[in-house]
Amino acid sequence: MLCTPFVLLFSLWFGSNAVNMQRIKSMFYHAYNSYLDNAFPYDELRPLTCDGQDTWGSFSLTLIDALDTLLVLGNRTEFQRVASLLQDTVDFDIDVNASVFETNIRVVGGLLSAHLLAGRAGMELEPGWPCSGPLLRMAEDAARKLLPAFQTPTGMPYGTVNLLHGVSPTETPVTCTAGVGTFILEFAMLSRLTGDPTFENAARRALRALWKTRSDIGLVGNHIDILSKKWVAQDAGIGAGVDSYFEYLVKGAIMLQDEELLNMFQAYDQAIQNYTRFDDWYLWVQMHKGTVSMPVFQSLEAFWPGLQSLLGNLDSAVRTFQNYYSVWRQFGGLPEFYSIPQGYTVDKREGYPLRPELIESAMYLFRATGDHTYLQLGFDALESIERIAKTPCGYASVKDLRDHQLDNRMESFFLAETIKYLYLLFDPTHFLHGGGTEGDGSWEEGGDGGQCVLGAGGFIFNTEAHPLDPAALYCCSRHAQDHQELRDILLSLSQPDGRSKPPAKQTEDPPPNPSDSIALKPGEKRTPPLLSCPVQPFNARLSIFGQVFTDNT
Ligand code: DMJ
């Protein structure tokens, strides 16, 4: 390739892609090795005290979340070692209250993705892969633990489930919107690979129920009572508590070629553009009236330009990205909340827990435009994180971007997402970008009798940056059909008159069975759940931002 003076200048100033990729690898191993040395088998590393803690469960979460990143960085031997280690050590039969949402996106998503990448990682594959395999069985096992949460009259899930006992009878019925609508990618993939439709049906039933609750002006709020279908927090926006619901409508539509999901998103998008968008910022509005309730930008919203670029809506994506990037430049990171009218951070939300969203958008936009602004953001992020967040033991969440105080926490998404998207931003020919580029465009045959081709096209990232191969969806239908036939034969053999009954019709809306929800025994200990979408009403949490409220309804 010719080196134009601009490209040369850029490389001199920002470092070449190869140099940046090497720096990102060092960043990964500094954190990863420290997690293994000091924190495993706990969920997370505590980077200030150099020890570990369980946070979202008790399943070595950081290791599950980081597994596919190892392969992204090209480390096949460590991927193989960790995949085996997890099979030997992780047990989901535990008396732990877990977030249904977080367990799905991090654990089920992480294992599914690792399962689909196992061939490329050089793992020994069992016959029938990708329709079977140990990592798939683990993903299924984890997902099955979540199913009791979906056994509700509406089909919308509870936010928390006890992995051993099911939903507690005292569990709050208030779930955030993302906690209802962020399952279709993992659950549909699981169903199509295993041939068991239960997962996909549960995710679809929840999505359809949620869709019916939108307001007359086409918006959804932030927290809903999943039993009464009443909106408990009526702030509509694209950030915390809602974000990945919209993401999964788009990505679900793409992955499953599903028009129903796309239509839902497009209807929402129209309302979002009409009521919440101002100067390419997105505000929070009252879901029934459309009046502004909070003129705030939340760092979680920074995924939006990337999502828009997936839909080809580039102009708007670029402008919104520029707004968000200006906030990054102001603080050297994205504060959790930023008051748009005041142009400053919001009280008690000045932190940056090393989130990936702006880098994620930069990755998509760089691929779509080739504009080096996005590499510059990547370079800025690399520099900032090294300078502000690095500790002898890993990388710490920034408690306050104004004075760079740190928190003793390194969330698992730092290795799963932030580092992965950074690396992919600087590696435009990576196999995860698809397109069968030179040298690494290899694909694998799989399924029964090698009937399917994997890895030949692009990947869809779940909301925790775990890549899913859409081609795998078509690998196992034959397999599922065989299973059904086998089931029918076995059923017919078990009939006294040897005749088979017609297979029961799979209903979209399975009737709820309250007794399926296994209660905690009286007096049993419950640890309070750590939800990303806390269960208290949204307004209560936001009352501390009094100064940015313009509408208190
Ligand atoms: C991740 O767990 C996921 O990206 C989720 O959708 C939102 N929050 C974090 C990262 O910020």
Automatic annotation (TrEMBL):
Annotated positions binding Ca(2+): 463
Documented EC number(s): 3.2.1.-
The keyword Coiled coil is annotated on this UniProt entry: no
One function term, GO molecular function aspect: calcium ion binding
GO BP, one annotated term: endoplasmic reticulum mannose trimming
Cofactor(s) for this UniProt protein: Ca(2+)
EC class (word): hydrolase
Keywords: Calcium, Endoplasmic reticulum, Glycoprotein, Glycosidase, Hydrolase, Metal-binding, Signal, Unfolded protein response
Region ranges (Disordered): 494-531
Alphabetized InterPro entries for the sequence: 6hp_glycosidase-like_sf, EDEM1/2/3, Glyco_hydro_47, Seven-hairpin_glycosidases
Active site: 102, 243, 336, 357
One GO term describing the cellular component: membrane
Record-given protein name: alpha-1,2-Mannosidase
Species in which this protein is naturally found: Amphiprion ocellaris (Clown anemonefish)
